[in-house]
Design brief:
single chain, alpha/beta, about 30% helix
Length: about 200
């Protein structure tokens, strides 16, 4: 039986990371209204990832083959406070000041929905957290970075894989998780489906 993979995310970084696991997959962006019912960063990411995957599943055409829908969401948190994507330059500056010289957590939640012939057969969700330490940043470094286009579509106002990488003092955990998808954990969870 043919197996199809659908990524329920428009993130170019997630698309790129998923190519480590699949030669072919379809991208369908969820346009669901995201609702958060808790404050725990890991639970929030799982909740949002599941909402995205379910929204895509509900609007799928009827596949005759085996399908897996993958939803994902990433948040940055420091001292229990969740940092989303900055709405403007001032918010980006404020976030980077908070992260400067400290360690913070990057959590990515993943939801997997398995279907056969259009019928949901299984569902699974998990989250992965990586600890990231940012070096002490000067005001000049912060302002220079927020004047690029990089911070504005990223949780916590930075991308580890871009220009901000030079300010990362260290990480504890999965690097890919910080980029947007915990590739190793996803591979482990999907081994049965992949074989």
């Amino acid at each position: 039986m043919k197996k199809s993979v659908i990524l329920a995310s428009g993130s170019p970084r997630r698309r790129e990371l998923l190519t480590m696991l699949f030669d072919e997959f379809e991208v369908i962006v969820s346009d669901c209204e995201e609702t958060v019912t808790c404050q725990d960063p890991e639970k929030v990411t799982e909740e949002l990832a599941l909402q995205k995957a379910e929204a895509v599943r509900e609007n799928l055409p009827r596949y005759t083959d085996s399908v897996i829908v993958i939803g994902a969401d990433t948040v940055v948190s420091i001292d229990g406070k969740i940092l989303g994507k900055p709405a403007d330059q001032q918010q980006a500056v404020d976030m980077l000041r908070m992260l400067s010289g400290k360690s913070h957590h990057v959590s990515t939640g993943v939801a997997l929905i398995g279907m056969d012939a259009g019928v949901q057969t299984w569902i699974k969700s998990f989250s992965e957290t990586t600890v990231v330490t940012v070096a002490e940043l000067t005001e000049e470094e912060i302002n220079s970075y927020v004047n690029t286009s990089e911070p504005y579509d990223k949780a916590g106002a930075y991308g580890i894989q871009g220009m901000f990488g030079k300010h990362i003092q260290g990480i504890e955990g999965d690097y890919n998780n910080v980029v947007g998808l915990p590739v190793h954990r996803l591979y482990q969870e999907l081994k049965d489906f992949l074989n």
